[in-house]
Amino acid sequence: MERFESYAGGIPGVDPAELSGWLIVVEGTDGAGRTTHIDRLRQSLERRGYAVAETGLNRSDLASRGLRRAKQGNTLGSSAFNLYYATDFADRLERQIIPALRSGFVMLTDRYVYSLIARAIVRGADPDWIKRVYSFSLKPHAVYYLRIEVPELVPRVLASGGFDYWESGMDIPMGEDLYESFVNYQRRLIGELDLLASEYNFETLNATLPVDEIADDLETRVSRLMATREIAMDGNPSS
Amino acid sequence: MIATYGSLRAPGAGRLFVVEGIDGSGKSTQLALLAEWLRAQGYPVVYSEWNSSPIVRATTSRGKRRKILTPMTFSLIHATDFADRVEREVLPALKAGAIVLADRYVYTAFARDVVRGVDRDWVRSLYRFAVVPTCAIYFRVPLETALRRILSGRPKLKYYEAGLDLGVTADPVESYRQFQSKLLAEYEKLVNEFGLMVMDASRPVEVQQRRLRTALRPFLGAAPVEIPVHGTV
Questions:
Q1: Residue B99 sits in which domain range?
Q2: Where are the alpha helices (DSSP H) in A146-177?
Q3: Which of A10, B53, B72, B229 could form a disulfide bond with B84, CB atoms 3.0-4.6 angstroms apart?
Q4: Strands laid side by side in the B15-20 sheet
Q5: Out of B62, B83, B116, whose CB is closest to A12?
Q6: How many whole angstroms separate alpha carbon A8 and alpha carbon A231?
Q7: Do A80 and B80 touch (CB under 8 A)?
Q8: Region B192-211: what's the mean pLDDT?
Q9: CA–CA distance, A24 with A40 (Å, rounded to integer)
């Protein structure tokens, strides 16, 4: 894919033809190593002279505060929650991601609509509905999915401070205690991400491999991706 | 199956009545009079107003105050507010057998968001979770009548209220006029698309109220709606 486009519908006031940067997504559950690999990727891209920007879920100027407050009380129903997240996403898309792409930045995105869609489906949302809600989003150039299974995930989460209420799906809840709910929730979540991986053409990486190996792999994939445009701009046939 | 608004029916024994129309159409006045009449007859009445969720409102206000809402986030935050009210106010009340009166409903979003350039089909699927009202009444009013009602008090028109975000003109009154005119055109399309009942809102208040009661009476049933009580023999 060379030019930017939305999955469907589009965004009022945004002409995708004006966008020139790269939109690269790293997906995966908590503990899969997303933060580490985004850092590594950023460093390697910056070394090569690219202007790099980053964003992640629930970091919007508009809605992140309200969303955090709503989560504290756990008082929102599931549709309202899903739409609050969609508001947060749309704000970041229009006010962080799109301006950066307009300026030619490489936008590294720590999770994208896919995690939000998977999370919503596990909480009972209709898959067609929630995918349609997010259909205004821009198609990324690549989605790197750091895939890990629950048994490998558990020791990592324990080492990094234990089970988080939301990442264990305790708002539903899905088990007798935090551990049980975590296992069941993450298993369902990974199942949904796997389905999305084939539907949206993710590139799946084994997140249990040594960190350096994954980082090298990612760097190679990103270089190859970016070379496609350089070839196209030199006037040679692109693959 | 088409994933869009219009397939979910109201649950339980309750009724959902909706009033729609542009600012100054007199719909809120009529709804308040209707509520009094229904309560006087012993019906349990629950009110739900557009943009009133206590949990979501702070975010909407922040967006408006700082003028950072785009057509997409304007649409989504109002849908969030609506979803919260549907889940916490409307559905439980309908299940309990109440008469729910909604001052504006999904049609407000369909009109406003589309005027702001949001994809027509997308906004309809966004609201798929909303139940179809028992009856929705559109208060049709000539543009000049509505404008006179709103503008005669020389109000300070707010940024989004006046449609200044559309960037058509910097003059709030002129912007408001054009925005309302576009909304009116969009509402007229909704009347046919969703079979809204039309009220001639240029008639005197008491005439409209009489017509409203006559129109809704068939939906009320013979006696006041009974609240189902469980656990009794």
A1: 15-219
A2: 150-159
A3: B53
A4: B45-49, B99-103, B15-20, B135-140, B197-200
A5: B116
A6: 28
A7: yes
A8: 97
A9: 14
Map out the domains of chain A with their CATH numbers: 16-147+203-226 (3.40.50.300)
Q: How many CB atoms lie within 10 A of CB B157?
A: 19
What is the percent of chain B where pLDDT is above 70? 94
Distance, in angstroms, between A223 CA and closest chain B CA? Answer: 34
Question: Rounded to a whole number, what is the distance in Å from the CA of A135 to chain B's nearest CA?
Answer: 8
Q: Give the pTM.
A: 0.92
Residues of A within an 8 Å Cβ radius of B:
8-13, 61-63, 65-67, 69-70, 73, 75-80, 82-84, 86-87, 90-91, 94-95, 126, 128-129, 132-133, 135-136
Give the tens place of pLDDT for each residue, B82-136.
999 999 999 999 999 999 999 999 999 999 999 999 999 999 999 999 999 999 9
Number of independent structural domains in chain B: 1
With a cut of 50, say whether residue A239 has pLDDT above it: no
Q: What does the CA dihedral B105, B43, A75, A63 come to, rounded to 10 degrees?
A: 20
| Span of A53-62, A84-93, A129-138, A140-149 with lowest mean pLDDT | A53-62
In which region does residue B195 sit, left (phi positive, over 0), alpha (psi from -120 to 50) or beta (all else)?
left
Q: What is the pLDDT, as a whole number, of residue A232? A: 62
The enclosing domain of B36 has a CATH number of 3.40.50.300
Q: Could you tell me if residue B208 is inside a domain?
A: yes
Domain assignment present for residue B232? The answer is no
Can you read off the two tokens belonging to residue B76?
């989504």
Nearest CA-CA partner of A221 in A107, A142, A131, A125: A142
Quick one: pLDDT band at residue A60, thresholds 50, 70, 90?
confident
- Residue B190, domain member (yes or no): yes
Please give the pLDDT value at position A45. Answer: 96
Dist. CA A21–CA B220, nearest whole Å: 59
